[in-house]
Specification:
The chain is built from eight helices and no strands. It is mainly alpha-helical. It folds into two domains: 83 residues, Serine Threonine Protein Phosphatase 5, Tetratricopeptide repeat (Alpha Horseshoe), CATH 1.25.40; 67 residues. Helix 5 packs antiparallel against helix 6. This is Photosystem I assembly protein Ycf3. InterPro entries: PSI_Ycf3_assembly (IPR022818), TPR-like_helical_dom_sf (IPR011990), TPR_rpt (IPR019734), Ycf3/AcsC/BcsC/TPR_MFPF (IPR051685). It holds the Pfam family TPR_1.
Length: 171
């Protein structure tokens, strides 16, 4: 199960050692420990662009992890991979599943908005004006939620909301 890291650096090694120590001293079940190892290996693979391997590890972690908060982050990372591979429908499904378990994930809300904005732009390119308006409206809704949770983040989204007349007072 342990992943051999190809590009180990000091920070990665330190994190791995500390995580292993914490797991040994914390009273967690065998399944929770295994879930964490799979999650950690998934993050390592993902950071190296090994998406198929990362997905395998995340799916294994999902089978073992019971904590809804931790499951939300696993689902979020799965969504990141699908989104970066252009599989937007799958990415949206996993982002929504993550938000069902933890509605305090502004990064998931932001990424959903980015996908809808991208789809709106593509609709304009294909001369589908009504569809683009729907996608931009959805993007605005999700960006507003993300900005409400993290008001100092997503400056480009805040500017887009202002320049397109979709802003509201975030204070």
């Amino acid at each position: 199960m342990p992943r051999i890291q190809k590009n180990d650096n000091f920070i990665d090694k330190t994190f791995t050692i500390l995580a292993d120590i914490v797991l040994k001293i914390l009273p967690t079940s065998k399944e929770e420990k295994q879930a964490f190892y799979y999650y950690r290996d998934g993050m390592s693979a993902q950071s190296e662009g090994e998406y198929a391997e990362a997905l395998e590890n995340y799916y294994e972690a999902l089978q073992l992890e019971e904590d809804p908060y931790d499951r939300a982050y696993i689902l979020y990372n799965i969504a990141l991979i699908y989104g970066s591979n252009g599989e937007h429908t799958k990415a949206l499904e996993y982002y929504h599943q993550a938000l069902e378990l933890n509605n305090n994930l502004p990064q998931a809300l932001n990424n959903i908005a980015v996908i809808y904005h991208y789809q709106g732009t593509k609709a304009i390119d294909n001369n589908r004006i009504n569809m683009s308006k729907k996608m931009f409206t959805k993007a605005a809704q999700y960006w507003k939620q993300a900005i409400t949770l993290a008001p100092n983040n997503y400056i480009e989204a805040q500017n887009w909301l202002k320049t397109t007349g979709r802003e509201y007072n975030f204070e």
